[in-house]
Design brief:
heterodimer; A: 231 residues; alpha+beta; B: 208 residues; two-stranded antiparallel ribbon; 10 helices; 67% helix
């Protein structure tokens, strides 16, 4: 057979594309449920890890249902829009809306009898989105714990925002996101610099843009809750 | 031809050192610079590329007599992309933690020049079994260079290996400091140059 004829080439290409398309569609749809399950479980893990709860080897779903009491949706004025559904809110979608229309998720949790509030944060790093969760004590100012993650920051540089060394700075000495009742967020500064006006932590050497991204993310995402924080 | 004839052994062994894809064939340099800041991603990248290049070599070698010459590159690309997508979907479903860790690297395997290079140079002209061995050999050859470079870079840039601290604190007390330059991609190129230098010095017959 002449494998160089036009007809053969076109038929070959079409058949190949159809076979590959079916194969990929089949793989994707048959694994979809399992993947979604994993994504939801991972999100629960992230929330728990912002509360400094060890999740390794534990039954995450069970632990989550014990610790997280309420999944509320807030409006920008600080009132409760809905009692449930915070878990399914997609920060990326919400950020595209105007502030008044946004659904702001709030996770009310309980650790050893004390109430903690977990607020999701979402922003942009150097290469893609970065996100995380900030857990506050019941004074709505002192940081109890944080968790950060990223889609594709550079390993060893920007990706270090997930490292214990960076994250622990938020809790080693208690940091506050408000000062004298006014929301200030927490600054990420170049190591060695200081910020007089608000609490700060050191950024990542070599990961300047990602560090600035975390700074901007905390400012804008936590800033949405300003009315809730004042209550 | 027996399974482990001289040619087949050669297909597997020569890319490990004398015909190494990175240092001799100059394939896959880009990822050797990008994923070698730490040892762990380098290891995982090496293993993933080995699996995919071996599988792609096998598939293309089986199809080699049917592939129309004018669209052979497209066919190769489709096979590679399909394999990578399937692997990445399976990771997401069955090993979610690993897939989160790999994040963008899995997708980047598609653009790794070793894949296209080996498909075009070897699998299009050889039988399935020797193509499979060639894929394994090139994958391991690539992985070994990545691991060596990542070993040096992680050790000197962070004092850790696979995330574990290996340089004790007392050394730092004497004024030792981590080398920030090791974090930068150019250092990978310098290290790669050193490996090539060593390789050619040991094997003068490799010099042009």
């Amino acid at each position: 057979m002449n494998t160089n004829s036009n007809t053969y080439t076109i038929v070959y290409a079409s058949v190949m594309v159809i076979i590959v398309a079916f194969l990929l569609a089949f793989v994707s749809s048959s694994l979809k449920d399992k993947q979604n399950e994993n994504v939801a479980l991972d999100k629960k893990k992230q929330i728990l890890s912002s509360l400094n709860v060890e999740t390794k080897g534990a039954d995450v779903a069970d632990l989550y249902s014990k610790i997280v009491l309420k999944e509320e949706i807030l409006a920008a004025d600080g009132s409760v829009k809905a009692e449930t559904g915070a878990f399914d809110v997609d920060s990326k979608v919400e950020n595209a809306k105007s502030l008044e229309e946004r659904n702001l998720p709030l996770f009310v949790c309980q650790i050893e009898g004390a109430t903690k509030y977990v607020l999701p944060v979402y922003g942009a790093g150097l290469w893609g989105p970065i996100w995380g969760y900030v857990a506050l004590n019941d004074d709505k100012s002192t940081v109890y714990g944080v968790y950060f993650s990223h889609a594709g920051e550079t390993p060893g540089l920007g990706a270090e925002i997930t490292s214990a060394a960076f994250v622990n700075q938020f809790t080693a000495t208690p940091k506050h996101i408000t000062r004298d009742g006014e929301f200030t967020s927490i600054a990420i500064v170049k190591p060695g610099k200081i910020d007089e006006t608000r609490d700060y932590v050191n950024g990542i050497s070599g990961g300047t843009i990602t560090s600035q991204g975390v700074d901007a993310m905390l400012q804008s995402s936590l800033g949405q809750y300003v009315n809730f924080l004042k209550q | 031809m027996s399974l482990f004839s001289k040619e087949n052994r050669e297909a597997f062994l020569s890319p490990l050192w004398k015909n190494n894809p990175v240092t001799m064939q100059v394939l896959g340099i880009c990822s050797a610079l990008a994923v070698t800041v730490k040892l762990e991603p380098a290891l995982v990248m090496g293993i993933s590329v080995t699996i995919i290049v071996a599988m792609a070599n096998l598939v293309i070698s089986l199809l080699r007599n049917t592939i129309p010459n004018r669209i052979r590159i497209i066919v190769q690309l489709v096979v590679v992309a399909a394999l990578v997508t399937i692997v990445s979907e399976c990771l997401k479903a069955f090993a979610y933690d690993v897939s989160v860790q790999l994040s963008v690297y899995v997708g980047l395997i598609i653009t790794n020049c070793i894949l296209m290079g080996r498909l075009e140079a070897f699998a299009m002209a050889n039988g399935p079994w020797s193509s499979f061995l060639d894929g394994l050999g090139n994958g391991f050859g690539y992985a070994s260079i990545l691991v060596v470079v990542a070993f040096v870079r992680e050790l000197f840039s962070a004092g850790t290996l696979l995330g574990f601290k290996v340089i004790p604190d007392c050394v730092y007390d004497f004024g030792y400091m981590n080398n920030g330059l090791m974090l930068m991609p150019p250092m990978a190129l310098v290290l790669l140059g050193c490996i090539i230098w060593y390789q050619r010095a040991k094997n003068p017959e490799l010099n042009d």
